[in-house]
Design a protein that fits this description.
The chain is α/β, with parallel strands linked by helices and 316 residues long. The chain has 2 domains: 216 residues, NADH:ubiquinone oxidoreductase-like, 20kDa subunit (Rossmann fold, 3-Layer(aba) Sandwich), CATH 3.40.50.700; 86 residues, Cytochrome-c3 hydrogenase, C-terminal domain (Cytochrome-c3 Hydrogenase, Chain A, domain 2), CATH 4.10.480.10. The chain is 32% helix and 12% strand. It has 12 helices and 9 strands. It has a 5-stranded parallel β-sheet with strand order 2-1-3-7-9, with helices on both faces.
């Protein structure tokens, strides 16, 4: 399949129950491996200052299930959550991957889930202990990021700081791109949709770097606003707004951040492609945005009245 056909598939896949994007991706990956002699995508996945919501969302990927992604698409070298190795054995896997990448034998994709705390000498997030002391999230990202072929910031905390960097930000947390002097693929969301993550990994394996928007997000999934494709858009155009939660009209008056939020939630849907926040009668809170959550609060205040519009996330 040509790259442009794959991208068209990502944008226009006929979503609905039982029609997950991942179900179309895996056969392409297998064809790629068989036809070109290519292997799986080597992945190192570390968690830093986060809630763990993105790996939970990833576990909800359907057709294929997560075990099929692991067995047929990616080679998971290291993961705080999914690996069996512990302690020194786990750290040895990281060291070996770094050495092989430095020798040009096998470069990996670094997936970072969570923000990077700079305060307290980085010790607000320690991912491991070594003979020389704590391995902080900052040190780990700098250490592993230098030899990675690609770096994926998974979730809004990793991409932009997110809730971990919300005011008053006592940990001085920042996004991955703020500590690495290189291109970072920001797959934002709190949490991410499984298709956004699986689709991005598939693109890296099959075609390399995807087209990114000005915020470093794959245009495949963040190319238009929630507002543009919202099923309640016609109410907005007619200036007919909901007065309370549960009303069927446009929820702009109740704090919906869809007009400034770039994501394909209205037609991709969530939970095996069944629903999404507006369909469940709650406003979009703009969780993919660089200024989330500060730029979205108070959550039920109309967009122009949100306090976060006056400042930047993570700043007092």
């Amino acid at each position: 399949m040509r790259r442009e056909d794959f991208e068209r598939l990502c944008r226009n896949w006929p979503f609905g129950r039982g029609h997950a994007l991942a179900g179309a991706v895996l056969p392409l990956v297998r064809s790629h491996q068989a036809g070109r002699g290519g292997g799986k995508l080597p992945v190192i996945w570390i968690e830093t200052c986060d809630s763990g919501d993105n790996n939970i969302s990833f576990l909800n990927t359907a057709a294929p299930y997560v075990d099929q992604v692991f067995s047929g698409m990616i080679d998971l070298i290291y993961s705080n959550t999914f690996m069996a190795a512990q302690g020194a054995d786990a750290l040895a896997l990281l060291q070996d991957a770094l050495v092989r990448a430095g020798q040009g034998r096998r470069r990996y994709t670094l997936v970072v889930e969570g923000a990077i705390p700079l305060g307290g000498r980085g010790r607000y997030a320690v991912i491991a202990w070594t003979p020389s002391g704590p391995l902080t999230a900052y040190d780990a990202v700098r250490w592993l990021g230098k030899e990675a072929e690609y770096v994926v910031a998974l979730g809004t905390c990793a991409a932009f700081g997110g809730p971990s960097a919300a005011r008053p930000n006592p940990t001085e947390s920042v996004g991955v791109g703020d500590v690495l002097d290189r291109t970072v693929i920001n797959v934002s969301g709190c949490p991410v949709n499984p298709d956004w993550f699986v689709g991005t990994l598939a693109h890296l394996l099959l075609y390399g770097m995807p087209e990114l928007d000005e915020r470093g997000r794959p245009v495949l999934f963040y190319g238009s606003t929630v507002h543009r494709h919202c099923q309640r858009r016609s109410y907005f155009d007619q200036k007919v707004f909901a007065k309370r939660l549960g009303d069927r009209e446009c929820m702009f008056s109740l704090g919906c951040a869809g007009p400034k939020t770039y994501a394909d939630c209205p037609y991709r849907l969530w939970v095996d492609h069944v629903s999404w926040p507006v369909k469940a009668n709650t406003p979009c809170i703009g969780c993919t945005n660089p200024d989330f959550p500060d730029g979205s609060t108070p959550f039920f205040a109309p967009l122009p009245e949100k306090a976060g519009q006056q400042g930047k996330a993570g700043q007092p």
